[in-house]
Amino acid sequence: MTGAGSAAASNLTRSLRAGDRSLFIVGAHSDRFVLRKSTADRNYLTPAVSDAGFVPAVTRVVRREKVDLLIPTTDAETLAVARRRARIPCRVFLPRTSVIALCQDKYRLTRFLRSRGIPAPLTHPVTSLRSLGRIFARLPRRSLVWCRIRAGSGSMGAIPVGRAAQARSWIESWREMRGVAPTAFTLSEYLPGRDFCCQALWKEGTLILVKACERLSYFGGGANPSGISSVSHLAKTVCEPRVVETCTRAIRALDPKASGTFNLDLRENRAGIACITEINAGRFPSGTGIFDLTGKHNLTAIYVRVALDQPIALRDEYDAAEGWYSVRDLDTLTGIFHADELFDRIEDARG
How far apart (Å, rounded) are the C-alpha atoms in residues 193 and 320? Predict the structure, then answer.
């Protein structure tokens, strides 16, 4: 597992051990300080994913430890491993490389989905600062506009704006302070409704298992200009067949023979239609516990079994376990609680 010691890898390790205590987990990371926090059974320091030595180092670890399955935990690592999967001497259960690359460009993904009738926000690329006024004129009037960078995670460079001048100031700031070109941004219609996250497991075009949750509040959201984040502070499991149906249509459109795991973000538009805003193809979210430690099935444990061609009886399974909440915060273990447990060991002193 790459990213060992990070929140994503630590939560994934917790989920895997909850699903199968017999697993031996090998961790890898390029930062020795983060790696020191890893709870994997054995850990290796590797070059960063941007280094040409990343895949060769991972390959050496795979051979030395006789690894059965390699699980990347970031977008960059997922794409790097996918591109070199033929050279890695173990199972790599990832979507096709072209699908991963398409999903990592939010503008290309949105265009693809809308061209196939799948709900996604109306989005335009920023070709230059001079184009901002023209783009605003093509988006819904008397509404906020969502300005964000078309690649990356964690709501990178995202902010709601009301006027072209506000978008210009925001983009200019990123160009001057962070070296991000204006052409890295998009402007899209603002989606004001409920915020969903969906995790799905596929093999050769067959949906194996899918789960969904709703973000209720955001980690650090109050400190972000956007007010939101892809990292929830409080989330709950939900039964939303319409959301799952939209996600299923999207994956089938991306690849009729899809394999691997897909993490999808959706938000409702003003009409209450859940629109796909992002798909992380090939990796789990950092808060994967809400999909693994609730319901009938541990999704990450099933992922390992499917990846290793072990027999699984599941097909088109929507594990909608309602009433579970996930609470995340800095420097604490993610709490997973059922609604019936929320007031255990709590006394009401509000008077």
Answer: 21
112-to-48, 106, 264, 289 alpha-carbon distances in Å: 31, 10, 15, 30
Q: Summarize pLDDT for 79-118 with one digit per residue, the tens.
A: 999 999 999 999 999 999 999 999 999 999 999 999 999 9
Rounded to whole angstroms, the Cα distance separating 128 from 122 reads 19
Domain boundaries, the chain: 7-92, 122-189, 195-341
Distance (Å, rounded) from C-alpha 314 to C-alpha 297?
A: 10
Confidence of residue 221 (pLDDT cuts 50, 70, 90): low
Q: In sequence order, which ranges of 66-197 are alpha helices (DSSP H)?
A: 75-83, 97-103, 106-115, 132-138, 164-178
How far apart are alpha carbons 221 and 90 in whole angstroms? Answer: 39
**CATH number of 195-341: 3.40.50.300, 3.40.720.10, 3.30.470.20, 3.20.110.10?**
3.30.470.20
* pTM for this prediction: 0.93
What would the CATH number be for the domain defined by 122-189? 3.30.1490.20
